Structures are given as C-alpha cells and as structure tokens.
TrEMBL record:
The chain crosses the membrane at residues 42-62, 69-91, 144-161, 173-193. It comes from the Eukaryota. Keywords: Membrane, Transmembrane, Transmembrane helix. This is Uncharacterized protein.
Amino acid sequence: MATATTTPGPLETLSFDGNASGPYVFTLVAQNVMCAYPISDIYAPASRYLFYALVALTFATLRIKWLSHVFLGAVVTYAACAAINAFIIIARPSTLQTPQDVSIPFIPTGINWTTGINPVKAVVTNTTTVTIQPDAVELDIDPITAIVVTSCLVGLPLQIWSRTMRGSLIIRYMLLVWNMIMLAASISSLIAWPTASLAAPQYRFCYAGAMDPDSQANDGWDPKYWKGSWNASIYNIFGYSAAEVVDGSGVDEGDEVCEVASAGEE
C-alpha cells in the first residue's frame, strides 16, 4: 500500500476575473504529490533507536561475555532482516511505465485562489498538459541502508580487535559470515537507493473546491477506471466538462474528488 502526500489548503475562493465576461471556475485541477510506500513498522524510529542502543551495549559489555553475546545476537537478528529486505528490493526493481500526457485546464499563476490567504498549494499552473509516469518511492530503503551500513562498520572492529568475540571459534565464524552478509547488503542497498528513493513527478486530479485530505492510502488502482490511456481515464472519471473552464455553478461540493495516477497505487 502506498500513500500520496501533498499540501493543499482550503480554497479562499474559486472565482477569478478571467476576462471581461466575468468570473470563471476550474472544475479539474492537477496537484503535485509524492506517492510512496510508507516505512514498515519494523523500521519505525523506536525499533531503530533500540537497534543502535543494542549496538552500543554490545561494546559496553564486552568484559561480560555472556551479556555481550545476548546483545550481539539481537543486533545480528535485526540487521539480518534488513539485509534480506535489501536483497529483495534490488532483486525486484520497479518497472517504469511508458509516459503519457494528460490534458488539464490552463490555470495561470497569480489568480486569487492560488495566492490568497489560504491558497491551494502544489497546483500545476501555466500548462495544459502534465506527463504521467506511474511510480512510487520505497521509503524503506533509507532505514535499511542505515542499518546494514552501521552493522558492517560495527562488525569489522568486533571481528578484528575484540578478544571476547575472538575467544570463541563459533562466534568468530558467525561474525565473519555476518560481516560478509552486511557488506553484500550494504552494496545492494546503495545500488538500489537511487531508483528506490526517487520517483518521476506524480500528480493527483481533483474537483476544485472539494479536495481530499493531505495524505491518503489505498490498496491499488481499480482497473475498471482504465480506458486505455491516462488521459482517457481521467476524462472518464471527471467527465469532459470537468476538464474545461466553466462558470461557478459547475462545482459540486459533495462530489467524490481525487484520483492519483501512480503505478496503480496511491
């Protein structure tokens, strides 16, 4: 499940003096958003802080062999989970779809509901098309990289300089295998990071004046909306009149509002 985040504010007013014939309202707007898979619970701040505390306790209790081994076992287990995740991410990179253009109303910069006291933020202006290339950011890659790189840097000193850890043949071989896995995971996460943490620009399409909350989550794009192209799909959802400049009566505050075109998942 992925989330889409933007920073829209309430409309000060939908009207602006478009020309001499009077006020106009845009019933369809495009907003810049970030579509991302949220950080997994296992990499939540509390879990990571506990991991770093266990790393420190492993060094602090080296003179108490059994206690240091307990802390090291917890560190190894957590880091191994992150390493497996890193291998999965690099083994199954996301596939980018072919970019397609979607037609949107031309909204000039500086109209009163984008520059007022409570403006609608992140609205796409000064263009009649946006290029859709469904993609999503994998937010797990940041904590995974931090965990496996830290583990790699911690394991080497323990293997080389710690007499406590070198006193047991089993522990020595376990540290050797662990360091090799952490090194491979570090390389994998660093290779995967540029593609997993960066995504093509994403957009959501809303009825102006009735936009969804800043952050949303769903289980995927409903294929019944797909009409062969993103442009046709957006027009099918909002209707042809929704993508045109109409008078103030064209906005229904009760309408269902936003759709995000992002790899089938928002």
